[in-house]
Amino acid sequence: MKKIILSLCVIAGMVSCDNQYESNKNQIDKMETKDINDVHSYAQFDQAYTTHLFLDLVADFDKKTLTGVAAHTIQNNNASEIVFDIKDLNIDKIITNDEGKEVKFEIGAEDKILGKPLTVQITPKTTRVEIYYSTNPTSEAVQWLSPQQTADKTDPFLFTQGEAILTRSWIPIQDSPGNKITYSARFKVPDSLTAVMSAKTTSHKNGEFEFEMNQPIPCYLIALAIGKLEYKSLGARSGVYAEPSMMEACYNEFSDLEKMIDAAEGLYGPYAWEQYDVIVLPPSFPFGGMENPRLTFATPTIIAGDKSLTSLIAHELAHSWSGNLATNATWDDFWLNEGFTVYFEGRIIEELYGKDYADMLSILSYNGLLAELEDLPAQDTRLKLDLEGRSPDDGMSAIAYDKGCFMLMMIEENIGREKFDQFLNSYFDHFKFKNLNTEEFLAYINEKLPEVKKLNLEEWIYKPGLPSNCPKIVSAKFDKVDANFESKIYLENPRSTNDWTTHEWLRFIGKIDTSWSITDFEQADKLFDFTNSGNSEIAAAWFEKSIRADYKIVYPQLEAFLVKVGRRKFLTPLYRAMKETGNIETARNIYAKARPNYHFVSTNTMDALLK
Ligand code: BES
Ligand code: ZN
């Protein structure tokens, strides 16, 4: 009886039931106490948790603030308080639906990584908590860009980055990937600008935009961008947002997008999010890509002119299954998001461009993995991480991505592709709109595929290093590059490299070691002009080798690159190479000029590196 009355309350408290997920879902399970054990959130999910968030905010580009209200519809387990995560936010007042007026709240002590707990006094009757607040210009998730920092240089720009635990710095929220919520939002922005979110735009007029995300997502996927944006459709359910001057190049670069979606669906089942768009952000975006649902955020450094770097889009698209449907329960289980995604990315690439092409990417990843295995402390080379007391950022290494992927490739190699694909289909279907941790993955795969018991998955997951059953990939294309490099055929016959793709060039540059003289650098540069390469991957790899060999010619281009691009994956190896070769003063001088252009994600890492 108690259960029925409570369920009725829950139904009454729900904001919308108009989506497939809500209507299918048994209302009773909204009653459950949430069993989330996440060391990176202050929230007490057994007391009360958000089921839906409504945001109503004004974006002020002069003050660099977002101001308004975050209204949480909550599942209340007879609680007298609810705890949210906040970081660098100003909380003005909080109103609950049952009191109808301001209620008491308390803000706890600050932790440098986690921020602060915001504890709000509620009653067992509370179903809605409205938090009136504003962000600060320093709020870590949000980067406010001046017109100078954009491609067109006419208007300011804003974007947010939530993963892993930055959402709390722009929204007061229970910031754990283990709780999935729906959201809706209303934004007021300057008239000439367009706002987009990881959600469906339901209305826009005169600087007022409304959004709805009716499928439950972890809150690290709530994302916003505002700027002078154009949109161009790429197919039935995909398109690209970019600044006007970038549009043509972006449109051409992503012309295979619709094919990628078809390939992904052919592998692992229907695309669940209706629309798949990509927004190309200004170059300070700290990542290559971010899988915000319905709208991948991407760096402009993948616009190479020849589609050679669009495997990154395959990766973010793959997250629409791995990560966005089946989500890691905590950041210690991050490999469940990224390892599956790298594997899935490889499969999409293989479908579109063939096995030779996919193999080249796997070998490049494998070499990156070997390098990181040398650098990382042993305990951080286990797939299941232990990030208590540390930033989840520490888990963002090749371990989650590539060791994770190689374990899945190993399973495929042993049990056969057909069977493994069947398993993955059932896995995504079973965990869609849910969370899982590593132990639940192990239980699930052991049940569905008992033959994996002899494959030592526990060793992959709980032991450091790379197990001996790791697949070995070979590539005839790379063998040719190696032979060419070693015998310096390219010097006599530069045309022997004519059919090389970006990946072959990365293999070539990757082979440069301390035996190379400055003359070797000069000769290669004269033939192939790496120093002025418009391909960001090639340029960054070449700059790193050049710094380490003291091939000083590259410095003007290196500096220009570092001042323009804020993608951390490029910055870390370049600044580190300068630091390790006695050029830390040069590194600091360049960084002083570049830092104002970087997002917090990048400054946080570079500050520590160059301190
Ligand atoms: N989800 C990640 C980005 C991320 C991870 C942001 C952890 C914050 C914390 C995204 O899908 C990703 O992996 N991006 C990669 C590209 C990919 C091709 C490996 C990147 O940005 O380099
Ligand atoms: Zn990823």
Give the overall shape, derived from the CA principal axes: globular
Largest sheet: 7 strands, mixed
| Tally of contiguous helical segments | 20
Spatially, the strands of the biggest sheet line up as 4-7-2-1-10-13-12
Structural category: alpha+beta
CATH topology of the largest domain: Immunoglobulin-like
Residue share in β-strands = 15-25%
Instruction: Give the number of DSSP strands.
Output: 21
Named at the architecture level, the CATH assignment of the largest domain is: Sandwich
**Which kinds of small molecule does this entry bind, naming each only once?**
ligand BES, zinc ion
Assembly category? single chain
CATH superfamily of the largest domain: tricorn interacting facor f3 domain
What structural keywords apply?
Serine Threonine Protein Phosphatase 5, Tetratricopeptide repeat; alpha+beta; 611 residues; Immunoglobulin-like; Neutral Protease, domain 2; binds zinc ion; five-stranded mixed β-sheet; binds ligand BES
